[in-house]
Structure to design on (636 residues):
């Protein structure tokens, strides 16, 4: 059989979880991470990152809207997916998806954004014209009271929602990790560390994503990047990345030291089929390089422009690294036989339902949603008096 | 032509075999089949398996299994000086057409291992199905409601034995049903019926008259991957430690 080395059980030759299932944890991770960044402002009062607060929320919403699409495209019978809501199977980790997703979407993210933007929505519903006016009218949900007292209540409720949102973000992504970590049949996945690793890598990727978006959009708006803001974001990103990397290394060292019956098989896979995506992309280029760069920004007094460039490079590498991590988990977990006697190959299709073009579309689509949301609900303060870009 | 007593002596056994065959293919009426009176499993006697592939072909014919996918398959293990600790394993096209002849001078031990769904009583595939489309029947058979299955393939990932696949045209999970349509009518499974050596035997663990009880008491019987604690009910006699 083409692409098979050694012996695979005959039904294992085909991989069933494709690049779309790689995207699913990647996208939900970005959502969770972006929300955690927003919570730094709202709950932990880290005012330095306030310029990214609203952008982080809108980014989280844009990606969350796309999160279920790769799953829908992957299902053999997507028309039956509502059954997960109507007749969920209590013992299945996956059955929780619909509820966790809806809870996070409606009770946390949409609610928080609505509370935060309510004053502007009401004002715009009165000042806009035509279709836009109608859109804003609908978005007020009939609540036009923007008195001081009412806005104060919004603020309090918003704080509570964010507080609830933090464990919800952990639940959303930790649960994705649990889907993999609880599969005892697959030694590559089966690990109680999996949900924790997923949460920390999610935080890092979401923070990196929002930081890059903030820097790019600020540039596009010809405004000055708030260096104190990106310095603070980079600091959080660095420390969370250290925890994430430590957890992943702990998992790795534990596997190597314990060396159970699956070890030889998995070790061979890491040194062959996953060498580029895991050793090169995920660990060296995507983790060690940004960690060293970010470390430099913490201990060496670098010029502002150098710091910005390091942040852009590190953020981009982190996004690549976390994507590679998802790839190595999802695809890597299907490349070896559960007999530990052989390996198969995964070739990404180009234009099929689960092909590369669709996957690229699902990466671009949240950015389209974000563009629309930013137009509708600008995350920048209207009275912004930022200086123009400083020429970097 | 005059039929002599000699002719009758020759013809009678042949007629008896033919009649038995006809009877075997006739489903019994089973209006009184009670789910609670059975707990189905399978006994697989490795020393008896000759790797003919009859079981695989019978299963594919009986259950319309698509090409390239298997509800049951047969593996051949070769333990030699070269492959002493890690035997060489092959299963060309699931062993459907048997196996290549052993070349002259090829030394070592060969044995065949039929594989199928283990109809686990604590089955991981059932546990993970998000809508409960996969379930264990009260008589111990793991089945899939294909009108309900989403085709998410989570169960495929959860099965430690590689017994499940996504049907290429139905787009739902598929696997051995233990020929449920037959065993509930008093017949045996297609693979058991086609096995020329009796290497596969349907076993009712709740029926005290079933030979499985005596067999389990008198032989060293093992299940695949016991460390998975799935409650597997495919019992293997003579299972080599190298089999995964």
């Amino acid at each position: 059989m083409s692409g098979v080395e050694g012996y695979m059980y005959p039904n294992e030759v085909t991989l069933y979880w494709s690049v779309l299932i790689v995207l699913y944890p990647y996208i939900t991770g970005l959502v969770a991470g972006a929300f955690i960044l927003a919570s730094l402002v709202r709950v932990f009062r880290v005012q330095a990152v306030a310029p990214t607060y609203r952008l982080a929320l809108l980014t989280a919403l844009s990606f969350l809207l796309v999160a279920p699409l790769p799953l829908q495209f992957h299902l053999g019978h997507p028309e039956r997916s509502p059954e997960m809501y109507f007749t969920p199977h209590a013992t299945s980790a996956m059955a929780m998806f619909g509820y966790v997703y809806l809870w996070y979407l409606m009770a946390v993210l949409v609610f928080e954004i609505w509370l935060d933007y309510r004053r502007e929505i009401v004002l715009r519903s009165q000042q806009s014209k035509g279709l836009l006016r109608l859109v804003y009218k609908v978005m007020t949900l009939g609540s036009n009271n923007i008195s001081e007292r009412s806005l104060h209540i919004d603020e309090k409720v918003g704080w509570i929602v964010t507080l609830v949102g933090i464990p919800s973000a952990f639940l959303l992504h930790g649960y994705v990790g649990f889907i993999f970590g609880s599969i005892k049949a697959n030694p590559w996945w089966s690990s109680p560390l999996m949900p924790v690793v997923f949460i920390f890598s999610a935080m890092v990727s979401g923070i990196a994503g929002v930081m890059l978006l903030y820097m790019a959009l600020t540039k596009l708006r010809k405004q000055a990047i708030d260096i104190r803001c990106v310095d603070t974001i980079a600091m959080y990103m660095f420390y969370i990345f250290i925890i994430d990397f430590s957890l992943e290394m702990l998992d790795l060292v534990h596997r190597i030291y314990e060396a159970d019956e699956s070890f030889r098989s998995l070790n061979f896979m890491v040194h062959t089929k996953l060498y580029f995506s895991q050793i090169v992309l995920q660990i060296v280029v995507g983790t060690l390089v940004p960690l060293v760069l970010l470390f430099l920004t913490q201990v060496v007094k670098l010029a502002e422009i150098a710091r910005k460039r390091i942040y852009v490079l590190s953020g981009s590498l982190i996004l690549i690294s976390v994507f590679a991590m998802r790839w190595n988990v999802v695809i890597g977990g299907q490349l070896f036989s559960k007999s530990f006697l052989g390996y198969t190959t995964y070739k990404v299709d180009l234009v099929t339902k689960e092909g590369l073009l669709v996957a690229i579309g699902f990466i671009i689509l949240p950015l389209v949603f974000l563009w629309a949301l930013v137009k509708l609900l600008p995350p920048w303060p209207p009275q912004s008096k930022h200086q123009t870009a400083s020429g970097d | 032509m005059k039929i002599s007593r000699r002719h009758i002596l020759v013809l009678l056994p042949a007629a008896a075999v033919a009649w038995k065959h006809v009877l075997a293919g006739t489903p019994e009426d089973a209006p009184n089949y009670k789910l609670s009176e059975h707990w189905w499993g399978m006994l697989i006697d490795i020393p008896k398996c000759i790797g003919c592939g009859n079981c695989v072909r019978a299963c594919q014919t009986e259950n319309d299994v698509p090409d390239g996918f298997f509800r049951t398959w047969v593996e051949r293990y070769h333990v030699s000086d070269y492959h002493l600790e890690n035997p060489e394993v092959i299963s060309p096209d699931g062993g459907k057409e048997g196996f290549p002849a052993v070349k002259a001078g090829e030394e070592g031990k060969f044995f065949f291992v039929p594989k199928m769904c283990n109809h686990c009583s604590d089955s991981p595939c059932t546990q993970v199905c998000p809508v409960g489309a996969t379930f264990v029947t009260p008589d111990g058979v793991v089945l899939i409601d294909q009108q309900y299955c989403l085709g998410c393939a989570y169960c495929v990932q959860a099965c430690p034995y590689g017994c499940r696949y996504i049907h290429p045209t139905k787009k739902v999970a598929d696997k051995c049903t233990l020929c449920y349509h037959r065993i509930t009518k008093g017949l045996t499974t297609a693979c058991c019926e086609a096995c020329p050596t009796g290497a596969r035997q349907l076993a009712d663990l709740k029926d005290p008259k079933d030979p499985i009880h005596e067999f389990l008491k008198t032989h060293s019987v093992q299940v695949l991957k016991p460390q998975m604690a799935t409650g597997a009910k495919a019992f293997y006699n003579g299972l080599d430690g190298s089999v995964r």
Chain B has seven helices and eleven strands. The domain at 5-237 of chain B is CATH 3.30.70.20 (Alpha-Beta Plaits).
